[in-house]
Amino acid sequence: MQTQILERMESEVRTYSRSFPVVFTRAQNARLTDEEGREYIDFLAGAGTLNYGHNNPQIKQALLDYLAEDNIIHGLDFWTAAKRDYLEALEEVVLKPRGLDYKVQFPGPTGTNAVEAAIRLARNAKGRHNIVTFTNGFHGVTMGALATTGNRKFREATGGVPTVGGSFLPFDGYLGEGADTLDYFEKLLGDKSGGLDIPAGVIVETVQGEGGINVAGLEWLKRLERICRDHDILLIADDIQAGCGRTGKFFSFEHAGITPDIVTNSKSLSGLGLPFSQVLMRPELDVWKPGQYNGTFRGFALAFTTAAAALRTYWQDDAFEQEVTRKGEVVAKRFQKIAGMLRELGIEASERGRGLMRGIDVGSGDIADKITHRAFENGLVIETSGQDGEVVKCLCPLTITDEELERGLDILETSAREALS
Amino acid sequence: MQTQILERMESEVRTYSRSFPVVFTRAQNARLTDEEGREYIDFLAGAGTLNYGHNNPQIKQALLDYLAEDNIIHGLDFWTAAKRDYLEALEEVVLKPRGLDYKVQFPGPTGTNAVEAAIRLARNAKGRHNIVTFTNGFHGVTMGALATTGNRKFREATGGVPTVGGSFLPFDGYLGEGADTLDYFEKLLGDKSGGLDIPAGVIVETVQGEGGINVAGLEWLKRLERICRDHDILLIADDIQAGCGRTGKFFSFEHAGITPDIVTNSKSLSGLGLPFSQVLMRPELDVWKPGQYNGTFRGFALAFTTAAAALRTYWQDDAFEQEVTRKGEVVAKRFQKIAGMLRELGIEASERGRGLMRGIDVGSGDIADKITHRAFENGLVIETSGQDGEVVKCLCPLTITDEELERGLDILETSAREALS
Amino acid sequence: MQTQILERMESEVRTYSRSFPVVFTRAQNARLTDEEGREYIDFLAGAGTLNYGHNNPQIKQALLDYLAEDNIIHGLDFWTAAKRDYLEALEEVVLKPRGLDYKVQFPGPTGTNAVEAAIRLARNAKGRHNIVTFTNGFHGVTMGALATTGNRKFREATGGVPTVGGSFLPFDGYLGEGADTLDYFEKLLGDKSGGLDIPAGVIVETVQGEGGINVAGLEWLKRLERICRDHDILLIADDIQAGCGRTGKFFSFEHAGITPDIVTNSKSLSGLGLPFSQVLMRPELDVWKPGQYNGTFRGFALAFTTAAAALRTYWQDDAFEQEVTRKGEVVAKRFQKIAGMLRELGIEASERGRGLMRGIDVGSGDIADKITHRAFENGLVIETSGQDGEVVKCLCPLTITDEELERGLDILETSAREALS
Amino acid sequence: MQTQILERMESEVRTYSRSFPVVFTRAQNARLTDEEGREYIDFLAGAGTLNYGHNNPQIKQALLDYLAEDNIIHGLDFWTAAKRDYLEALEEVVLKPRGLDYKVQFPGPTGTNAVEAAIRLARNAKGRHNIVTFTNGFHGVTMGALATTGNRKFREATGGVPTVGGSFLPFDGYLGEGADTLDYFEKLLGDKSGGLDIPAGVIVETVQGEGGINVAGLEWLKRLERICRDHDILLIADDIQAGCGRTGKFFSFEHAGITPDIVTNSKSLSGLGLPFSQVLMRPELDVWKPGQYNGTFRGFALAFTTAAAALRTYWQDDAFEQEVTRKGEVVAKRFQKIAGMLRELGIEASERGRGLMRGIDVGSGDIADKITHRAFENGLVIETSGQDGEVVKCLCPLTITDEELERGLDILETSAREALS
């Protein structure tokens, strides 16, 4: 494989190519192929961007159909037929059946852009600067979003500029068994000298992806919504990684029966890995004035097209949800088994997750790395997350076949055994 | 045209659909078509994103070829054949012939992301927080980039959070005839109590696009580079709008014979309107540690593919440059004529620009709006820029045919006359 | 009493004159006299500024002696005999006997100035921007200090400018019985994505004055020191209110046997109510360059003079400490009795404090106000603290006579009964 | 002289004791005496804090009278007879005769505290965060004030924390002869993308003290006031150094016939070098809520007492103004002569100032230091200011006798000659 120019020209900031130092060429559903023809099962799936698999045939066909004629590709924030079609799909397939009433902003095609727009909207709507976020939360790295992202790696690489306007509170479970971390939040809200500026909004991932597959309890989420309502604080669900079916529902917050005031989506939203994001907001929160937030690529018609196809292909009924849930249980059981095996090897390991967003916490990044490196040698692309990279995580395509899923899990189990025995 | 769902569901933040309230469907080179079959000449071209026209055949063919097989579409920051191919094209076609030695960062596919990465890199490299930017500069709206963007519309929509780390100085010409605004910069640098924190970098557009087609003089740019070198300050050329041939050279700073330390590109970089951006940096500035800046869509293989095709199609020799320059002169002459006509009507109008980045300053946003509204009625999509929208600007595809160019200019001239007589 | 001009000319920001709407004229030790000759016992003592009482005779004599000749009064940061004399007293009477080795900065005469200097020194010494502070902490209201002050009243009056560089953590006891709040701090320090930027320093009051007479446990303080040492974080003891003997030791942190890296003193430091403050720092932390922090009144010779007199009068042996401790127990017992009485009236009341820094938490600001208003009518000046003003606090002069102390306590007890029966 | 303990214990931050390495003991009017009995003429006068001289007899007598009985010394923000008396003097002697209607805030006794309060008040009153300040402005070093202070020495000593909420614009004359720097300000205000956030207020010294005795033209000040009025921006006159008669009027802005919305005073306000400051505000701007800004030493009764005495002693008629003006001309003439002499020695020197706030710009800090060091050897305490310390400045007591003034000027002239020949 020819990698010289890649090593020479690409900035040292590159990261995944260090874990997987091959040149990938082909990809289909849950399979990746490198330049030398070697195949890998893909349990990373674009870090949750490829919920419908690589080169999903139906979604790709919609793209090819669109490209077959000279349909507009780049449309700034013009009205285009592609955008209209996407909005129709969103309304009919997603919002109406769930009884949700949201307006939509296309803030630029990346997750961090959606978060920047969402928190700014919350601030403008409430006239307050503070945004509460949680330990191990990840919401992007542009300076506005970074104020809500806990990871020191990014926070220490701002050239010394402190972030402004974010307050971290402990996520569900952070203070240990038996402590409801929302007690602390609620106490601070009521405390006139606790140091917490009354926030405009709270931004939360119902399952923290980068943070280590940390799963917020459903009661905790309900209470969080209630606290927000009681204190006139906006609840922002960052569903960039956990949304689009990853947890077994289209929106990850559906499990808890809550209705966020603002929702961010990206990653799998386009269905094919195309850059695309949206901010959903309760209509009365749409305090934007024309043009107050912009960006060149907020009308990428190819993504509208594939996103609409994805919604219509997978979300017209609950079959896909059930399939994800079923596969999630398969992964959960196997992860529990692997965790048990690791515990027998003296490693404090445990399984956690929701739907097909699952991880095995093996207690240290070193151990996790050993496992994932070995897995890669054995033909499985799988990554870690968590503050120390201590969680081996499965974000396989939701469309993965049972055979590939089993094969991937087999590789992982074998690799864990090989790596640590 | 069915626009109800667009009006109902899209946030009030939408803007271009207010100026051009039609639903666009087809687009080819410099022609846009709306749903009712009406055609428009496109002098906006995705705000400079479609330098090679809508649905450019060669570039699109590269996309279709890539899509014809199951090549990887979304690759995080994996090594992919598509990325490698792009780097090869960039090196061979662009950098080597110009004697430039840059490393490349793919920071996420939008311009604002590139700017966030660029200024953060400068801060990390120099250990200083300040970034000097110029009046009427536009560098994006995420909070980091916004510190360098002058537009009040965005700056006042942050929910009260002040931006941090940017200092505005007067752009070339801002202090009137005869005053070299860099005198002020240089004086401040040497003044221990002038209030200017020694900057890590200076970010500059050689021609300000959103700011009103303000053209920095070549001597001014040379002096700016010299000042930066003398004071160990990094020169960041934001070539997001002015780059990719818009001014008649691939990089807009080539006219001045300067070599920025850091360059940002986006908009037309992908060649087809696909979200894509890059940061170029002198190799010794690549102080990033692995993973210190990230983003999901920094390995969008379709954009690598079309970007490589664009470079190979248009930049192997200087024919395209000459063509852009020639067309630029056509526009310049006609704009001067229109400006002259406006002056006869008592409007203080003047032409300015470089290459095919040109504008007529008509002195007020109201007058400019009258002209562009009339132009739209007459079949021309054209927008304004400048602090008050007082500059009617031409950002037509560089690939526009002479006939379309003339037709567009005719419409504009007629519309200006009609609107103001 | 003539108060018209006061009401007309003084800004609405005035506060104590609303609780005590009389014009005070004379004051001696623990007695205040108003213009109409009415006497009050003073349990407020300048919010802890008059530990040695009003017009303390020995200290005042030193002032008069100094003023008797044309000794320099205002000396910028000149070397003066008065400053030298103070440093000698500080070293001989305070530092040496306690085995402390500190250098001294006179940063301007107010507490907030001392805090601004202290946290800036910590940041400069460690090259990090973050300062950890605690819920209900009060460290001043200038913008740098305000980042570490929890009170919303001040934080919301910055015209929307968020403070930068402070992170609030729960003070001892804040998470309820059985929870050691330092577990949370230590977890965050070790958590690479917990959102806590590694701090340069931690600023703490061992007993929070304005925050509600919240007493940090001695083991908690020891553990805090240990955590700081383990993580190379500077421990800053803000002893502005709790220092100068208030808790029964000269430095309030002596009880815990810890040695902060940086100490701030003000309030009672001058001994007579003259504006005066200092920052003590371990010698190796003195990274200031000449003149990097300044202020006009950092060489107020009258305060040097009275401060030296205070040290020599009260701190040559441990007699004064013992007296304070004894009186503290008197107050504690009576406060417990009053709290018991209140509980019988159905009010959830409790006593807390250390030395002569004591309070009765009566659960609500309304109840506390009723008591203190009645007390004022009955001849006692006493204030509340805590986030809701729910703590009736005693900060009487340490030099109060037993008779006056008993009389003040009698009035308080009577007033509480009268107010709430 | 015994200086060991001073050198050992005082922080490296100390500065004046490096220029004047003696221990001062006595001081009377414009004379300082060191421990060895050496006398110095004082042209520094506490950096403008001792306008009425050291140990001014009348003012000091008021202090002694107050201290003769047990009058309250420290009164938090209680109503005291001393405060009332000061307000009466301020109203009768200063405000009424000048037709000024201001309310008064006592924000803590230092200048930086007054500035913090003033800019916060402006922000709260206008609901905007930005404060415009000028090149070479000095307004204090606490973090809020520092945002408006240009000096890099302080700005670079914040441990990397950038200041927030200040925008620097060129002071009068900064852009050279013939350029009115307010053209730039006015252009920026009208420019929607110039990068200047509409400010809540503009803070200005009519004569910049620390910045180098830079004198704002009276027309420039009038235009500045007009611009502020036209744009609903508050004009804040920082009269901490230039006020209290220094320029020949009580308020330095009287020369220009303007009426600032907010005024800050400190330094010479107490008349005797006691820490004291005030914020004056137009009554309708008094948007403070009770207690929104505080500080322990905002009711220092000794300073009220001496300040009232100073007003009544010197400002009942215009005799003192005339005397200051006369002496100012004496200094001006001699400074012009010295500057002429320096020019003959090849040094580009010039005189400037207003009233008794005067300097000789000698072009470099090295030259200025040579002169002031020699002057000190010859018995004159005189300091430099300006960004490089290039301005030898005279801030002698306004009460200096003609003989002492002449003697000081003689020493300076001789020293300049000696130092540079």
UniProtKB/TrEMBL annotation, chains A, B, C, D:
GO terms for biological process: ectoine biosynthetic process. Pathway: Amine and polyamine biosynthesis; ectoine biosynthesis; L-ectoine from L-aspartate 4-semialdehyde: step 1/3. Pfam families: Aminotran_3. Its cofactor is pyridoxal 5'-phosphate. GO terms for molecular function: diaminobutyrate-2-oxoglutarate transaminase activity; diaminobutyrate-pyruvate transaminase activity; pyridoxal phosphate binding. Its EC number is 2.6.1.76. The keyword Protein transport does not apply. InterPro entries: Aminotrans_3 (IPR005814), Aminotrans_3_PPA_site (IPR049704), Dat (IPR004637), Ectoine_EctB (IPR012773), PyrdxlP-dep_Trfase (IPR015424), PyrdxlP-dep_Trfase_major (IPR015421), PyrdxlP-dep_Trfase_small (IPR015422). SUPFAM superfamilies: PLP-dependent transferases. Keywords: Aminotransferase, Pyridoxal phosphate, Transferase. Belongs to the class-III pyridoxal-phosphate-dependent aminotransferase family. This is Diaminobutyrate--2-oxoglutarate transaminase.
